[in-house]
Design a protein that fits this description.
313 residues, alpha/beta, Rossmann fold, Alpha-Beta Plaits, 29% strand, elongated, transmembrane, hydrolase, ATP hydrolysis activity
Length: 313
Amino acid sequence: MTDTIIEARDITRNFGDFQAVDKLNLKIKKGEVFGFLGPNGAGKTTSINMMVGLLRPTSGQVLINGQDLEDVKKGIIGICPQELVLWDFLTCKESLMLMGDMYEVPRDELKLRVEKLLDDLFLQDKANTVVNQLSGGMKRRLNLAMAVVHQPEIVVLDEPSEGLDPQSRRVLWNYIRHLRDEEGKTVILTTHLMDEADRLSDRIAIIDHGKLLRLDTPSNLKKEIGEGDVVEMKLSDPAKNEEVVDILALMDGVHSVVKVEDALNVRALDAVGKLPQIIDAVETTGVHVLDLSVRQNTLEDVFIDLTGTGLRE
């Protein structure tokens, strides 16, 4: 009995001469929150759309529970898109009942499920409120409820925290954990929020230019890329940044030196102990350190290290 629920085998997708995804291979385990990260245009949305049957691969194969995707019942997957898909003039309860009816959920079971979803997502007080009178956070929570009302095995959440206030985000995060821990769902999460990916994901895939760069747990990724601490510093003359990068990169124990906007990030083991040596090296170029801080390595550091700092739209 395998613990794999989704397997992508060499899936490729071309749009004319443009290759959005290039021979992607990965396995998603049952009952895990699987984070999908990548810059804009990296191919992550195309990859997920192929894995859940919304887009046909140019080549390659997707298996769900060992079956070819073409042979799988579509109700096994629930999709919560980034763009809200709601009926403005139905109430929350009516929206959930209608969605359940579309999936042919038995009525008695559906009524219980709707009540539980309204409770779990803090929408019970708004059960009979029409959608166009809800706040943005309430609409996003309703959108999620509609994606899971039919009890899918796999739940796809595309940027679920987009535009949410901290309280609504916390409710959402707790519910995602509930889906995994209490209901045994497999959750595929795409997000631009590194903190969200780090806190929720059991494993994370980082994709860029249609290729899988890394797939591992958040803690392992942070250990593998930039092991140790990160020294963030700004120099008195940013024009000297390149020269300082070249000097610091040659120091023993320094894993990498990266420019981030007008600052430098130096990753090193025992960074605190190396600070006098780092500052001395900087001052040999005729500049001094204006601002300096030391912090632990983060998932954002991993992401930048793997995909670069160039903005893509």
